[in-house]
Specification:
Blueprint lengths: L2 H14 L7 H4 L8 E5 L3 E5 L19 H7 L3 H5 L5 E6 L3 E8 L2 E6 L11 E6 L3 E5 L7 E4 L3 E5 L5 E6 L3 E7 L3 E5 L5 E5 L3 E4 L9 H9 L11 E2 L2 E2 L1 H11 L8 H4 L4 E3 L9 E5 H4 L3 E9 L2 E4 L8 E4 L5 H4 E6 L3
Antiparallel strand pairs: 1-4, 1-7, 2-3, 4-5, 5-6, 8-11, 8-14, 9-10, 11-12, 12-13, 15-16, 17-22, 18-19, 18-22, 19-20, 20-21
Length: about 325
């Protein structure tokens, strides 16, 4: 191969897989830094309570890349999904920042920065395979973000060849924006392309303050999605993963778990409920420990991700056992 051909090949590679932004707009947000952070490097990482042996059907999510569709399809029975209760803790999305707390063999215990919990001041803790995170220079912190608004979206190498499917709420730095496409920087795989119609551009500070009906509309796009313990992605939500993810998409951070969500925001009487308010349910006819959360949908109805074997649905608040277990409501927006 001649020198000229070698140079052409190298130029084509650099354009397709840039190690740093090449255009002027991208250069303005790229900042060379010695500061390193750890990011999730799979589409959805499942965090576990410990490193003990997992089931054979969990293998699709214990490597890199993960296959969420294969995993959820393998859990064909309610028993398969109930097994996760108390074993899986939460999930984190591609590109989400985590803090490594400790390691053990091929596993790392991390804390998910954007998921608040009293369990750890650094974020929601849990164990995952080390291969599912990457530590990189935090060089794109000031870039505009592209947040996935579709249930799922595909990242492409070159606008034609798919690289990875990612979930709703995945948030990646933008290095180039075109009419129909956005180029984003991934945690460890260089620049990729995503359809502009699948994302919302901006930063948390620029997200319009939502009204309750906007939260409700976002929640409705997941109607029919099967419940998944620990889930925070469009491949399956648990009850509080559903509500916290919807609020997070609209720029409002609330605690990860229902019991903590019930302590935040402002208490609202049942007679003053508005769409978007969160409803809480507790054992002992509403007097005991909070165990479930739903979102008020108006007209005495609620939308929620109920339990293993069920799907995201809209039902009457008077449906048993929720009518008997109602424990109050909270509002997080003015």
């Amino acid at each position: 191969m001649t020198l000229k051909k070698v140079l052409i090949v190298l130029m084509m590679f650099a354009l397709t897989f840039p190690l740093f932004p090449a255009d002027s707009a991208a250069s303005s947000c790229y900042q060379k830094t010695s500061v390193k952070k750890t990011y999730v490097n799979v589409s959805v990482a499942t965090l576990w309570k410990d490193t003990s042996a997992k089931r054979q059907i969990d293998q699709p999510i214990l490597k890199n890349p993960v296959n969420m569709k294969a995993w959820t399809a393998k859990m064909a029975t309610v028993k398969d999904r109930l097994w996760l209760t108390g074993k899986a803790e939460t999930q984190a999305l591609y590109g989400q920042e985590v803090t490594v707390l400790k390691t053990s063999g091929s596993w790392a215990q991390v804390a998910v920065k954007d998921q608040s919990t009293p369990k750890n001041s650094k974020g929601y803790p849990g164990w995952l395979p080390k291969s599912q995170v990457t530590t990189q220079p935090a060089a794109y912190e000031s870039c505009e973000k592209a947040r996935v608004k579709a249930n799922t979206a595909v990242l492409y190498h070159d606008k034609k060849t798919s690289f990875m499917e990612v979930s709703f709420n995945t948030d990646l730095p933008v290095i180039k924006s075109e009419t129909n496409w956005v180029q984003v920087m991934t945690p460890a795989n260089g620049a990729k392309w995503i359809k502009k119609s699948d994302v919302r551009l901006g930063n948390t500070a620029s997200i319009p303050k939502p009204i309750g009906t906007a939260l409700l509309t976002t929640g409705k796009q997941f109607l029919g999605l099967p419940y998944l313990w620990s889930g925070v992605s469009a491949y399956g939500y648990d009850c509080s993963g559903f509500t916290s993810s919807i609020y997070n998409y609209h720029g409002i951070r609330i605690p990860r778990d229902a019991s903590e969500q019930a302590k935040a925001g402002t208490a609202i009487s049942k007679s003053a409920l508005k769409p978007g308010d969160l409803l809480f349910f507790a054992y002992s006819n509403g007097k005991g420990r909070v165990h479930h959360v739903a979102m008020y949908a108006g007209d005495g109805k609620m939308i929620h991700s109920p339990k293993a074997g069920k799907r995201v649905e809209i039902i009457s608040m008077n449906t048993a056992p929720y009518k008997q277990e109602y424990a109050g409501a909270r509002r997080y927006i003015d």
